[in-house]
Amino acid sequence: MPANAENIPEVQEPSEAALEDNNIVDVGILQLRLPCRAFQIAYKVAETGELSLTTEFLLRLLRLADGLPETSISEFFGFTPDETQFVVDYVEGKGYTQRRNGRVSLTSGGRSLFVGSEEPALFEVTPKLERFDFDLVSYTPADTWNRLGEFENKLPELSIASHSAGENTSEHVLRAFKRYFQIFLQRKGGPKLDRRKLYTVDAVHADLRFSVLVPVTLSVRIDEPSFLEADLLSWKTGAELDDRGSVVESCVKFAKEITFRSDQISSASVDALQECAPLQMSGFVKGHVFDSGAFFRATMQQVGAFRIDRPTLRVVGQVWTNANRARLASALHYAKVQERTLPELLIWLKPATPYWGATTRLQDTIEAVNRTFMREGEDTNRTLRSVVIGTEDKRAANALKHVFGSVLHTRPQDLPGGLELLIVPGVLAYMAVHGPLGQKEGFPIPLGVMTFDLEAVKRAQIELSKILATAHSTQFYCDWLSDDVMSEVHNVLLGSPRIQSTI
Predict the structure, then answer these.
(1) Three-state SS for 240?
(2) Please, what is the average pLDDT of the chain?
């Protein structure tokens, strides 16, 4: 499992003000593949060339004097008649001067060399053939191409822009190339005020296809959590983002189509969360019904981050949001200073919500656990075995097998609807119920707890073992030799004698 550039932040205890910005709370992170293509473009560029000093001085002199007799030019430069004739013939041949009645004066072409400058500029037309990359949604310059990993290549891809009748991709690229020509020059190392101008575009040939990742931050307003907002500000800002309005619209549309119904949340999910964290869930469950709105409001008002004497917190959002990543790092730190050891398995019960885990931050979360408990001088190739368990979803499984060591499938009826459990046995747990807020159907917002309290972690292990005890599982993938991964999961969950005596 390759390391990713988006690493878990350094462990520090964040203030609540730093965790949630004003009236906005992040509830999810997506990474979507933006389809791009390289194009080989044949074009001509008009580049400013250097004039000889003699030619430049002559043109300046004729501009200031508004024309001169050839004899005056000869006297000014100290030329012989033959030398004067040679110089004047040269600039006349370029179309910059003309002879009339023994006088030499600038033509309109000669005067145009001085437009916007006191110095004459000579344009030389140069043919070129180069590669230029565009995204296929907004037809703007694409980000630098980097080869994506196997998991990244399985992330959802945005739809390619549809073309108007009679138009093709090359026509879109032709217009975009003209519009963004100066930006391309700057990307290739040219100055901001490049005097090169696009002269003609002669041919556009499509080349290889590739994708770049676009991070999408999903958030809600604390006073109106039913309205999902999606922004790409961690990708682009300002004019760059304005130019990519089609990408923004496509990402927002994708995010808002990720929905979950409130009636898909089972009472068993609520009961499991209450069993794991009775104190934090107190007052929010009545008759197996979860008052998610009240829980959300209370969580937004809670004071304090993790401390050694505050090992359990209510949380909102996916475990890899910025705020929850900071909390996870803090929880791992406190678990480590209590000299807990890394278990054999990390176990993740994933909810049956659309596109769960569609971000490289999923990989980062597992790697953060592994790094935290790695001892000095230990083999850096040692990795924590990890298992993800969920209802059968081959599209998701084909991606998740590049993150987890093992992927197990169960029947839909075997798992409580909307429940997510991340358990590092004997270390920490994250437990959440996913569902819409303030509406019957909408984006599934995780509401739950994160804890490094050993008793709470044990309760989470017991609850998960109960859920899996009656589940019919099939092994989709495993990267280590195992006769029965589910039995390994049970053994790890119930490995403590104290836990066994509780069952």
Answers:
(1) helix
(2) 88
Output the furthest CA–CA distance in the chain (Å, rounded): 116
Position 16 scores a pLDDT of: 43
| Cα–Cα distance, 173 to 169 (Å, whole number) | 6
Measuring CA to CA, which residue among 349, 343, 327 is closest to residue 424?
343
Confidence at residue 121, expressed as pLDDT on a 0 to 100 scale: 62
Class of residue 241 by CB neighbours under 10 A (exposed 0-12, middle 13-18, buried 19+): middle
Specify if 177 maps to a domain. Answer: no
Predicted confidence at residue 378, as pLDDT, reads 60
Which residues have C-beta within 8 Å of that of residue 145, sequence separation ≥ 6? 36, 38, 133, 210, 212
Query: How far is the C-alpha of 416 from the C-alpha of 418, rounded, in Å?
Result: 6
Where a domain ends, among 119, 147, 170? 119
In degrees and rounded to multiples of 5, residue 445 shows phi and psi of -95, 125
Supply the pLDDT for residue 376.
62
* φ/ψ (deg, to 5) at 395: -60, -50
Tell me whether residue 97 is in a domain: yes
What is the number of domains present in the chain?
A: 2
Domain range for residue 82? 52-119
Ranges 191-200, 292-301, 339-348: which has the least confidence: 191-200
Q: What does residue 257 show for φ and ψ, rounded to 5 degrees?
A: -90, -5
pLDDT over threshold 70, residue 173:
yes
In the listed set 77, 99, 119, which residue is the last one of a domain according to the structure?
Answer: 119
Q: Among residues 306, 314, 328, which one has the least CA distance to residue 282?
A: 314
Q: What is the CATH classification number for the domain harbouring 391?
A: 3.30.870.10
The answer for residues whose C-beta is within 8 angstroms of residue 42's C-beta and 6 or more apart is 127, 128, 129, 201, 202, 203, 204
Please write the tens of the pLDDT for every residue from 364-405: 999 999 888 876 666 555 578 999 999 999 999 999 999 999
CA distance 343 to 322: 26
Confidence (pLDDT) at 498: 45
Please identify which residue in the block is written with the tokens 């700057």. Answer: 186
pLDDT of residue 383: 72
Residue 243: predicted pLDDT? 96
**Does residue 369 fall inside a structural domain?**
yes
As a whole number of angstroms, the distance between CA 491 and CA 496 comes to 9
Query: Do 493 and 425 meet the contact criterion of CB atoms below 8 Å apart?
Result: yes
Burial class (CB in 10 A: 0-12, 13-18, 19+), 382: exposed
